[in-house]
Amino acid sequence: MKNHEIDYKIYGEELQCVEIILDPNETVVAEPGSLMYMDDGIKMETIFGDGSQQSFLGKLFSAGKRLLTGENLFITAYTNLSSQRKQVTFAAPYTGKIIPINLMQYNEKIICQKDSFLCAAKGVSIGIEFQKKLGAGLFGGEGFIMQKLEGDGMAFMHSGGYIIHKSLQAGELIKVDTGCIVAFTSSVDYDIQFVGGIKNTLFGGEGVFFAVLRGPGEVWLQSLPISRLAGRILSFATTTSRREEGSILGGLGDLLDGD
After folding, report:
1. Any residues with CB less than 8 A from the CB of 152 and at least 6 apart, and which?
2. What is the pTM of this model?
3. CATH number of the CATH domain containing 234
4. What are the backbone dihedrals phi and psi of residue 248, each rounded to the nearest 5 degrees, phi first?
């Protein structure tokens, strides 16, 4: 294997964290701000790029790719400098599930949404995947650029709500809300399709386009995209009515409550 070989254990149900067990001199890389805790003997180092490149030009190119996907230019590496096994734990940023992916089992490449990466064994390349189809790029929800994880080690993604893992046979097709896609293997064909019908488009509440995924390959879907959750929270935060809370007093009820 070219990548570091790490062990792990996932804790929790709805608000999960992943414990990475590092042998001496093993390293895991993670998104800045994802650390929960780590054992004494582990060195934390902020590095340029994703840690898979050694030359300065390679690091610069890697950092540029991360910038295009909306991620930080830097990534944090955690290395076990002791002579014993040590643990470092990372937490997902919002409620949902952590998905462990052994890249070796999927032809060493996974395509995922831009903000789904959590952590990975050192050596995993975190790059970009351009959508080759104009329609998918313009209307697919994720735009022209998605994230690409390459290597032969373990990588961990996070998602919102519950995870559905589907294995598509050759020619098998599913239509998905564009925000519900977490990841898919490189053999899956990704395109978009117009919902169709004036009433469906204007009043269906499902947007104008579906994402169309055609097998063969593996697909991971999330039940609660963070954009959907944020939109619902924002709508409650900006409303002035208390009727959804069962109050018939409205603004008077707010005044009596001291709001």
Report:
1. 1, 2, 3, 103, 104, 108
2. 0.76
3. 3.60.160.10
4. -105, 5
